[in-house]
Amino acid sequence: MEWANAVVQGTLLGGLYALFAAGLSLIFGVMRLVNIAHGDLIVLAAYLGLTVVSVLGLHPLLALLVVVPVMALFGYVLQRVVLNRTLGDDLLPPLLVTFGLSVILQNGLLAIYTADPQKINAGPLETASVSVAGLSLGVLPLLTFCVAIAVIWGLQWVFYHTALGRAFRAVSDNQDIAQLMGLNRRHIFGLAMALALAVTALAGILLGIRTSFDPSIGGGRLIFGFEAVIIGGLGNLWGTLAGGVILGVAQTLGAKVDPGWQLLAGHITFLIILALRPNGLFPRISA
């Protein structure tokens, strides 16, 4: 039962990692942009949630009604004003710009909120649990996993059943032809980044409720997100969820063997999969 519990807890943890990774997968799938600042944007969303909860006195889940639109608007403006100027055949400029953005975000959050660890107080939600088949499952991890499934399903539905999704796929396949057909690729890219940061807002709030955070943890969240994306297959949204679950299970099983092996087990699993399947377990199939 202890090993079964570790697998279940790892699966639920994978839901949070899938939320970390969903925005990365979306952005790479649409515009082939690798966002080095993604982890710091997750932390930014957590701090925005903390501020909204502290100032307005809202429950953290209600704070999403404020944080999600703010992050989406920030994403659109960031893409239109800054990142669109870096896109092209050379992958280096967007990497350098997002690295600079990462440094700015970390230092800005440090100046405003200091280096002291913070946590979003969600009251009884943090400790509530339910018993399933002899296993005690936290309500918050269950909620996080359900949100991850809903987000992945929603993004998949947008991609394949809406006009916006068709525009995403068109500019992803061939930007020049999409532009000739009347699509404004700069606007489409802005909408893609807005959608990605809306998902990032969800990840940031749930991270802030689950554990303490400070301005320096963005790099670790970025690594977890990258590993989940690459394990599942670049650009494959459902693969991202599978990658997050695999990474989460590897970490909890590693911690079961030795607490010091938790992160190491996840990284080793990532390297093994990368060596055997360089394109990931479920590489994207063009539709």
Q: Mean pLDDT, rounded to whole units?
A: 90
Number of helices: 11
Strand order of the largest sheet: 1-2
Largest sheet: 2 strands, antiparallel
The end-to-end span amounts to 42 Å
Oligomer: single chain
Shape: globular
Structural Rg: 19 Å
Helix content: over 70%
Low-confidence runs: none
Beta fraction: under 5%
Number of strands: 2
Overall SS class: mainly alpha
Query: What order do the helices and strands follow?
Result: HHHHEEHHHHHHH
Briefly, what is this?
With 287 residues, the chain is mainly α. The chain has helices spanning 2-31, 38-56, 60-81, 92-113, 139-161, 163-173, 175-180, 185-210, 218-232, 237-257, 262-276; strands at 129-132, 135-138.
Tell me the layout of helices and strands.
Elements lengths: L1 H30 L6 H19 L3 H22 L10 H22 L15 E4 L2 E4 H23 L1 H11 L1 H6 L4 H26 L7 H15 L4 H21 L4 H15 L11
Antiparallel strand pairs: 1-2
Helix pairs in contact: 1-5, 1-8, 1-9, 1-10, 2-3, 2-4, 2-8, 2-9, 3-8, 5-6, 5-10, 6-8, 9-10, 9-11, 10-11
Could you walk me through the main structural features you see in this protein, from its secondary elements to its overall organization?
The chain is an all-alpha fold. The protein is built from eleven helices and two strands; from the N terminus they run H-H-H-H-E-E-H-H-H-H-H-H-H. A two-stranded antiparallel ribbon has the order 1-2. A hairpin with a 2-residue loop joins strand 1 and strand 2. Helix 1 runs parallel beside helix 5. The longest helix is centred in the N-terminal third of the chain and has 30 residues. The radius of gyration is 19 Å and the shape is globular. The protein starts with a helix and ends in an 11-residue tail after the last helix.
